[in-house]
Structures are given as C-alpha cells and as structure tokens.
Amino acid sequence: MTASTTASQTELKQAQVPLAWRDQCSALLIPLNTCRRKNAYLPWECENERHTYEKCQYDDYIRRMKELSKRKLAAAEEE
After folding, report:
1. Residues 53, 29: contact at Cβ < 8 Å?
2. DSSP 6
3. Which residue windows are coiled coil (predicted)?
4. How far, in Å, are 48, 63, 73 from residue 33 at the CA level?
5. What DSSP state is assigned to residue 23?
6. pTM score
C-alpha cells in the first residue's frame, strides 16, 4: 500500500472515522463517507469512490494473505 491511501490521525478524527475503519485505506474512506452523507447513502451515487475503496481493501487483503503464506512457509522450513 502506498502512503497516499493512509490518512493521518488528525484527518481521521476530523472526519469522525471510527477506530475500526482506520486502516491502510482510510484516506479513501473519508471522501466516500462525505459523498454518502451528501447523497443520503443512495447506492447508485458515489460508485467510483466506493469501487476505489473496495479495491484498496481487496489489495490490502491479498497483500496480507501473501505475507501470511510467506511466514507459514518460513516456519515450515525452520522445522
């Protein structure tokens, strides 16, 4: 993940992002939530922002799974 997808703690606090959602894609969540509030959470609005956020979440998941498999492989080789 690049640093451009992670917001600072002050930005997250100002945007009232809950602690559970402050992850690698937090900077993308701020404009998504702003758009959602502006458009009364209509599902067909903010599609681009939602897709970008969900893609970031998926890429982060894939990155973490690759890291986990590397750790498991390294642990198996040590045994």
Report:
1. yes
2. -
3. none
4. 12, 25, 39
5. S
6. 0.83
